[in-house]
Amino acid sequence: MIEQEYLKAVLTRFLEMKKLGDKTFQRLTNMDIHWIPTEGSNSIAIIVKHVSGNMISRWTDFLTTDGEKTSRNRDVEFLDTISSVEELITIWSKGWTILLETLNSLKADDLLKSIYIRGEKHSVIEAIERQVAHYSYHVGQIVYIGKQLKGKEWDSLSIPVGKSDEFLREMLNKHK
Description:
Blueprint: H1 2-25, H2 44-59, H3 85-105, E1 114-117, E2 120-123, H4 124-150, H5 164-174
Antiparallel strand pairs: 1-2
Helix pairs in contact: 1-3, 1-4, 2-3, 2-4
């Protein structure tokens, strides 16, 4: 059934996003998570607080309440109050746990139901796709900042430059 395939595919995309963040955090120090690339930009700590706050708000009681919970204080998410990489990972994991539990609980017939985010009506599919775009944007920022911080020490999280042909051969052999 296409609905089940969609839920499986989107779960895989979310898990891949989470893994990129997880791998980035493993490379960072407590000082690194507070580095701001330019004035007006956000640190990794702030981005993580924002993403987790968004996840908790959007995915808690996903099918039954507005995705912008009255308990959420979005502006506080942009204050850098995280003290360590360990605390950052705890906050990050809390949001992901709620997202993944909710996504795993969805059934095929939920996908065309309507939910609301800030009073705006969305199909469940639209809401999921909205969050895929939002989180991938922020995970990309996290990885990019990590790469800027670590410079030449950074090991690629994807296909390293100059290794494309080798990677393609490996993938083709793997999937014969």
